[in-house]
Amino acid sequence: MNNQYIPLNSLPIGKKARVKALVSDGNLRRRMLDFGLISDTLVEALQKSPSGDPVAYHIRGAVIALRSEEASQIIVEPTY
Amino acid sequence: MGLTKQSTGTGVLDSVLRIEHNIPGSKVIALAGNPNVGKSTVFNSLTGLNQHTGNWPGKTVASAQGKIKHKGISFTMVDIPGTYSLMANSAEEEVARDFICFGKPGAIVIVTDATCLERNMNLVLQTLEISDRVVICVNLIDEAQRKKISIDYKELSKELGVPVIPTNARSNYGLDKLMDAVYDIAIGEPGTRPVSITYDDEIETAIKILSPRISELAGGSLNARWVALKLIEGDASLLKSLNEYLGLDITKDEALLELLDTVKEKIFNNMDPGLLRDRMVSGLVHMAERICKRTVHFQDAHYDNMDRKIDRILTSRVLGIPIMIGLLAFIFWLTITAANVPSEIIASFLFRIEEHLTAFFIRQGLPGWVHGVLVLGIYRTVAWVVSVMLPPMAIFFPFFTLLEDLGYLPRIAFNLDNFFKKACAHGKQALTMCMGFGCNAAGVIGCRIIDSPRERLIATLTNNFVPCNGRFPTLIAIIAMFFAKSHLGALQPVVSTLLLTGIVVLGIAITLFISKILSKTILKGIPSSFALELPPYRKPQIGRIIIRSILDRTVFVLGRAVMVAAPAGLIIWVMANINIGGYSILAYCTSFLDPFATLIGLDGSILMAFILGFPANEIVIPIVIMSYMSSGSIHELGSLIELKELLVSNGWTWVTAICVMIFSLMHWPCGTTLWTIRKETQSWKWTIASFLIPTLTGIIICFVVAGTARLLGLGGFQGL
Predict the structure, then answer these.
(1) What number does CATH give the domain B10-186?
(2) In this predicted model, what pLDDT tens digit does every residue of A47-70 receive, in sequence order?
(3) Per-domain residue ranges for chain B?
(4) Residues of chain A contacting B421 with CB distance shorter than 8 Å
């Protein structure tokens, strides 16, 4: 699975990945940057909400819930 | 962003700045920090009760101010909105940045969470870029100890170049030291040497080219390096603020513009400013990472396992939503079962006083109308408000605050987000609804946390579908009276709880439904982005919760209710006792409203009470009682059972009770809320819409319920 880039929303729960690119722009991109989502940041998918969306991610010591629309704009490289 | 000055909260800032100038000799201290780091606890612990805040002080939605004296100097603490950044991505961030930049605070305290310091470092570093009058307060150190996270405060202070004070605000630990540090910085020269964030070479060169000219223009009032960064990044909102607060329009300075053009062209090859911002943020994040690597040590790699386990239960696919409803129902059950007895005790106590008052008035030989106005009008209405309102509030609030303190509310937003997404609304609307439980006006102000103007309007227009603390006791009193023990025996509390939970769930369902309709009609649009932090769970401070929720919320709300109840009682009494052509004014009014009211399952007196209850919903039931009693059927009421008899003798059935509850949930917002909506939206159109939407919804639903009951011959409608 290595060296294969996927959108963050397809990262399975319990798995980790490194951020490779943000494809969003404008306000959403700034929000993502506020969370410290820069290149090579380690992200772990923690938990789905009852209806499957949003999903909670572990980002730099904080737990952040993102809707699939937002997570799909973060390109990551799985570490498994 | 197309937002008006007031709706972005700068109106609030204006008043903050004015207050500073009003108090000579008082040093202004800004309290900044990320959301959910216990900033409000620090603020409350420092200022005690010596503060003026909004209706819902648990969460900072507008700036609150408080006073504290330390070493003989009086300080004004300003609690600025919690933000992750000062890059003015949202209204809050703009307010926070403008206050730090232009509010001239004597010191800025940045409250951070010891359990996720790196995450907080972004705001810390950005603030250090602007000001050297900064004290870092590392809060929640007890939680960090519990999670075996050790922090080298001395090293951190050396790295950042400003004082770092570990605190645990909930037990007042470290706050004295914090104030010592604030004192040192605010009085005289700060003597700090804040760390300078170094960016990549290109950005650094650009800063060197721009900052001399900025220094010349701004003098010593601003950090030139920082303004240079903002110019490179193309931050329009800062330029606007510079003009607004300092009267400094640096975009009109030819020399600076020329330099800026050179920089953009020669150094950055006219690169997209967005990409430049990325590079700047990366600089900050890397710096934060470096500092935290040196100063924070996680002895237990799985320090947050417990939080994750709790999350897996509270937000699980199967149990998440049932647990949420169950918790709500449990609190309602406690409130209903426990409020009954104190309600009756207070009622009988207050009415004993009324007897004494009456006896006193007779002894003094005062005219009957004086006794009527003061005792039967004002005193009696106030007594009803206190006895009906106080017990449920004193029980409900602490429990609700407990959930808030535990960190459960963001999980509610997480659980419900998908419903809001389907309604094309924002998941944070769940949080503003939670605030609405306390006070709809506070809920409306809370809508500022939603960035998208469209979704914020939806949240504003529908906030009233959540019953506020003024309406809760109304619902509970009707349930307690109407579904009394004699009918249902041991099942009574269960049925009452289910009813109340059902009403609230109905409110949530209607909120989603109306949000969806709005999204498809007058507020067309797709859902915007959603990112919500789920903060660590925290051990609640029970004692503090009880004191704060009773003092802040219960007493405040009760006080407001009493203030409104007194004149309303007076009006009712006068209306009931001035006769024209053999009938009282009240009788004319109620009989005028009666035909329409009957159509929606109410009666004239009830609708009249809702109208008179416009200033505050708390007084609806007391006015209904007053209005029935003034017609002379029953004069002595001691208990809820007698109260129920009064209502039944005036034609109430369980269908009436249901319709009153539905109408209480769905009718026009109270005066305060409407006024707040006008202020927040800056538009009469949306204020009127927020009046009409819940009112029409309530009328339609009540009409359907009453009509169906009538068709089916339920509930003995012949009485109405």
Answers:
(1) 3.40.50.300
(2) 999 988 899 999 988 899 999 989
(3) 10-186, 201-271, 320-714
(4) 53, 67
